[in-house]
Design a protein that fits this description.
Elements lengths: L1 H9 L4 E4 L4 E4 L5 E3 L16 E5 L6 H9 L10 E5 L7 H8 L16 H6 L3 H8 L2 H7 L18 H4 E2 L9 E6 L5 E9 L2 E10 L4 H12 L6 E5 L14 H11 L5 E3 L8 H12 L8 E4 L3 H9 L19 H13 L15
Parallel strand pairs: 4-5, 6-12, 7-10, 9-12, 10-11
Antiparallel strand pairs: 1-2, 2-3, 7-8, 8-9
Helix pairs in contact: 10-12
């Protein structure tokens, strides 16, 4: 919407914007433009439309497209048209309707990224820089526009036991990056260190308990003498109060750090968890990016984390991570994902600003 208004102003096309209804009226001709979110697509049944356009079509429910298509019936329109722009997202309904089994009257225009001469003129190395942020499969989909099924099979497909696993020691003068997944049972956390852009997963704590204090005790037993400092990360649900204790995990962690000042600890929190898809992509990009670089390595003794990387899969035909088949799985890889996301938030998707804004 902001870009649309900017174009109108630069072109000196007068308009009136009603912010309460998100409706724009062109002063010449009286044409109206409605700006609408598509998460509640049943509300789209009302207006008669001459045209509609959807951004990020592959992340839009098919039902929303069908509701809008049914509203293309404005009797004053010289031509009725609906269109969408997107990058591929597997073999979903957009692929089926526009590519594999095209509906009559539909057309698909596919453009290679390197055709965007305007972008390359301003930032010649834009696509090369994305290779360092994306894993190879995600780069193929998001940048090169390939149709891949990234939501089936192994979640952490970039992991290779022979390449990403080794023997590593804790560096005494570097901070420990301790990341939690606040699962009820088992409660899991992973201890890492960072060397530049490289993350080393050095140790894991997996306790058949829902007691946060028991996890602290285990950590203190292992690392009470560490003087490089500690940074604590975790699932954003840790800010929610527990029913049993009336206090949150993060609050208890702050109290623990205050009582153990010799650790030099700090809590790194986020208001909400990143989308699962973005967190998984960030981890895969560190396991192996599109340049073939590996920047995430796991200590051989982190057996549960290694099994996560090798065994966590998507539920068939759902795009959702399977957390039901084996209750031991997903917790450590989730915990590590929160840390990687906080430390290395990826650049925006193609077409957005290629830099971190926050």
């Amino acid at each position: 919407m902001a870009t649309f208004l900017e174009i109108l102003e630069e072109s000196e096309l007068p308009f009136v914007l009603n912010k309460s209804t998100n409706t724009l009226t062109m002063e010449y001709g009286g044409s109206k433009v409605l700006f609408r979110a598509l998460d509640e697509y049943e509300r789209l049944r009302g207006p008669n439309l001459a045209w509609f356009g959807i951004d990020e079509l592959t992340y839009t429910p098919e039902e929303a497209w069908l509701r809008l298509e049914a509203r293309l019936r404005d009797p004053k329109a010289a031509q009725l048209c609906g269109f969408g722009v997107c990058t591929p997202k597997g073999f979903n309904w957009v692929y089926r309707r526009f590519r594999s089994e095209p509906v009559r009257g539909y057309a698909l225009i596919e453009a290679a990224p390197f055709e965007n001469r305007h972008l390359l003129k301003a930032t010649p190395d834009y696509y090369e820089r994305l290779k360092a942020s994306y894993d190879e499969n995600f780069y193929q989909q998001e940048v090169l526009g390939k149709y891949l099924n990234l939501q089936a099979g192994q979640v952490y497909y970039a992991f290779d036991r022979h390449e990403n696993v080794g023997d590593f020691e804790v560096s005494a003068d570097q901070p420990l990056l301790w990341s939690w997944d606040f699962n009820i049972n088992p409660m899991c956390s992973v201890i890492c260190q960072r060397d530049g852009d490289v993350i080393l997963a050095l140790d894991e704590i997996v306790l058949r308990t829902s007691s946060t204090p028991e996890v602290w005790e285990e950590f203190v037993q292992r690392y009470s003498k560490h003087r490089g400092g500690v940074r604590v990360y975790g699932d954003a649900s840790g800010s929610h109060a527990q029913t049993a204790t009336g206090t949150s995990d993060f609050k208890m962690i702050r109290q623990f750090l205050a009582r153990n000042r010799a650790l030099g600890g700090e809590l790194v929190t986020a208001p909400s968890n990143p989308p699962v898809r973005d967190r998984v992509n960030a981890v895969n990009a560190h396991l192996r990016n599109a340049l073939g670089e590996r920047r995430l390595f796991v200590n051989r003794k982190c057996r549960e984390l290694i099994q996560d990387f090798e065994q966590v899969c998507y539920k068939p035909d759902s795009g959702q991570i399977d957390k039901d088949s084996d209750p031991r799985r997903t917790h450590l890889s989730d915990a590590l994902g929160y840390l990687v996301w906080q430390e290395f938030r990826p650049v925006g998707r193609v077409g957005e600003q290629g830099r971190r804004l926050m």
